[in-house]
Amino acid sequence: MLKIYSPEGLQGQQPLQLAPAPAALAGLRLAVLDNRKPNARLLLEQVAHGLAQRAGVCVAAVTAKANAAVACNPELLGQLREQADVILTGSAD
Amino acid sequence: MSTPRAGEGAAEMIDLANDAPEAIFDLFEQRGWGDGLPLVPPTSERVTLMLGGAEPDEILGVIPPRFGVATRRAVAINAVLAGCRPAWLPVLTTAVRALCRDEVNLAGVQATTHPVAPLVIVHGEAVDALGFNAGCGTFGPGTRANATVGRALRLVLLHVGGARPGCGDQSTQGQPSKYSFCIAENAAHSPWEAYHRSRGLDAPSAVTVACCENPHNFHDMESARADRILLKAASALASLGSNNACISQGEIFVALCPEHAATIAADGWSRADVQSFLYERARLPRRVFLEAFDRRRWAPWMQADASDDALLPMTEHADNYRVLVTGGPGKHSCVLPSWGMTRSCTLPLSP
To answer: Any chain A CB within 8 A of the CB of B20?
Structure first.
């Protein structure tokens, strides 16, 4: 038996925890954050409208980050926190 | 698994049955580590030798998407795994520092569906002193320094950065250069000043990282004129298939073989002339771009009204063509298109 090092090293940030899912969507404000992949907005808007019809959310904002290859800027995330209770985002090609 | 001993910082130690090649191969396979090739066990003794007395806990950068901390020790562990010699560790640590600079956008490079991989280019005195191959087959196999430094950087990105295919690295198809991608500049056979000096670095040796596609070959066996050779490069570049077609900020590396470079220089052309020529000649009609792409991330001036026949460049200014000489005898050169939303970084080689 011998000992070797793990190749991973330490993590500099703890993995983020997802916010708890709301018990019900009815009456909540929903925002769409388009990541600017070609079909992201098409897909996300359809899901948002489906949630509005079926679950009673209010679509409060539809916006997009600057481009698909970089993280959303903190100012925009701050605005979305003010405008919405739930944010719908994701990737699509 | 065991608690780190004194002198091992916070690095985790793992029990390995024995030093046989199969033991570490199997262990890494079970844990989802490695690049699929055989590995050298990173024992404390080997890692200490690799570090050569340098401060093991110095942080070189934090590597997304796992946000692993790339200490010198963590990099040295991966250098041992890849088969590096201790003398090459500074090349690797300089490459890691460069990759962690903001302009590289490593989070995007690691996670994108594009096949982009970081190319390491070694410049200056270190090329010969450390045994890197800048000559025949520089992009290919056969030289331990090129092979293992390129491989070690990929292992750092896999292990410390968490860029496992399908989980962290979403590259649709990947590309062979994700195994190892390290070359050296052939300054001895270049008619122009060394690349790093052309970028303003006054250092005996330097390391560039450039996140790009695999090399796209172009050949010209017969021309004695600069323009005829470079028209082949322009033809290889003027393609709708590369990200440069719809993202104008991307750099494009142009790796000229010594014979092509000599012919071009004998015509009186400087490196800047090569850049200007490719900028002017690697173009497509505006209507071709418009027919091909609904979304174009172009510089504002490229968005301006123009006739459909106006010829637009593959990148927004001539300096985005990055020209250097590498390789051996023969008349094959290559271009390396970019992922687009990344910039190369050249740093002086430092311990």
So the answer is: no
